[in-house]
Amino acid sequence: MDRQLLGRRDELQRDPYPHYERARQAEGLTFVAELDAWLVARDADVREVLRRPREFSSANALIPDVMPAPAALAVLGGGFGGRPVVVTADGARHQQLRAPIVRGLSPARVAAVLPYAAERAAALVDGFVKDGRVELMSAYAGKLPGEVIGRVVGLDPADVPAVVHGGNRAEELLFRPLPEQEQIAAAEDAVAMQVILERYARERHAEPRDDLCTELVRSVVGDGDGELTLEHRHEIVAHLQNLLLAGHLTTTALIGTTVLHLLRHPWQWELLCAEPERIPAAVEEAARYDSALQGFRRVTTGPVTLAGTELPPGASLFLAFGGANRDPDRHPHPDDFDITRTPERHLAFGLGVHGCPGSQLAREQLRLTLQELTRRLPGLRLAEDHPVTMRPTLIHRSPQALNLTW
User: Fold this and answer.
1) CATH number of domain containing 291
2) CA distance to 108, 150, 308, 354, 375, per residue, from 361 (Å)
3) For 250-276, b where at least 16 C-beta lie within 10 A, e where not — what string?
4) Range(s) of the domain holding residue 375
5) pLDDT, tens digit, for every residue of 192-224?
6) Cβ contacts of residue 182 below 8 Å, gap of 6+?
7) What contacts 362, CB < 8 A, 6 or more positions away?
8) How many domains does the structure of the chain reveal?
9) 390 - beta bridge partners?
10) Do the beta carbons of residue 251 and residue 137 sit within 8 Å?
């Protein structure tokens, strides 16, 4: 990709909403060179694609924005994983991969982890409440989700920081242009995470527990004393890595954007402090208004027509959940952030067979966060000496840093 195109893609990723608006207003679909895909940005069109998984495959859902250098790929080759995962599978295989995750993130499992999540949220706020200022992404948003999903999976808390760091580095490696030496370092961090997860695969196979890691091991190896092969270990690590990255990166991003937009609209922050019963509505509005996961890719399995545009087999689409969530045909005054609006069903967590199985866990962590911050720091505001810049990505959209004072 040439430098000029890279610059345009960076601009699009930092603020995709004007691009979505143009795509919604155009006839048919718009091909966007920066995405190398047809942009699907209307609510009705995105829903149609999600409801037709046989014609719009998920095989390309996580194609990297950047292909790592050969030296970085060589490092990755020494790790584990690299197998199809739930977000890139279709049909019966997708159902098979999804089943243990749905069981592991059941309402009962989510309810069981909430006391721990509340305890950790309070402890993290304790760590900065007396300081008068905080950079929220590093001090809170980047910590709580990893600790919570780590608890659900069954990780030792001592392993969580390395797993979270490895996940962050894997995302950087695949979705941001980095110098070659930095790519190699990021790949080494990702492999270090995979080695930890492979150890858990072996331990849970030998001694099963009541946790999501055991569910995933059983789904791959089966019950009983079956041998844990190298291929099994690669597959289990792929599933664990995908689950953990989705479980902490998305929620971290959602916490950051939610607090950002509430503080950019002070009267809404004050309303939330005065009327905490509005927190669930605020969660839904924040997820709609600036979706953490802006979209996934799809590829056509045969000739198909969408929004009047004829697409050949193998056509790449970018399903813009963030664009659909700003569609005025679904959401009146969609560019207004308004926690008092009557919520419409949004697409921040997907839809149908590929709807996010962890959406309730993400919502609960955001609810706990807003309860803690509104109760303990009602005077919270954005630090005027630190302008907010959004991360240039469509995979986990959030502030690069969020400096707050009170």
Assistant:
1) 1.10.630.10
2) 11, 12, 38, 16, 21
3) bbbbbbbbbbbbbbebeebbebbbeee
4) 3-405
5) 999 999 999 999 999 999 999 999 999 999 876
6) none
7) 145, 250, 251, 254, 349, 356
8) 1
9) 399
10) no
Contacts 24+ apart (CB under 8 A), 266-272: 266/381, 268/337, 268/338, 268/339, 268/340, 269/374, 269/380, 270/378, 271/339, 271/340, 272/339, 272/370, 272/374
Are the CB atoms for 31 and 38 separated by under 8 Å?
yes
Question: What amino acid occupies position 103?
Answer: R
| Structural contact between residues 165 and 193, judged by C-beta atoms closer than 8 angstroms | yes
pLDDT tens-digit series, residues 355-405: 999 999 999 999 999 999 999 999 999 999 999 999 888 889 999 999 999
- Give the distance from CA 165 to its chain's centroid: 15
Backbone angles phi, psi at 250, to 5 degrees: -65, -45
Residues of the chain with confidence (pLDDT) below 70: 1-2, 224-225
Pairing label, strands 37-40, 316-320: parallel
Cβ atoms within 10 Å, residue 74: 12
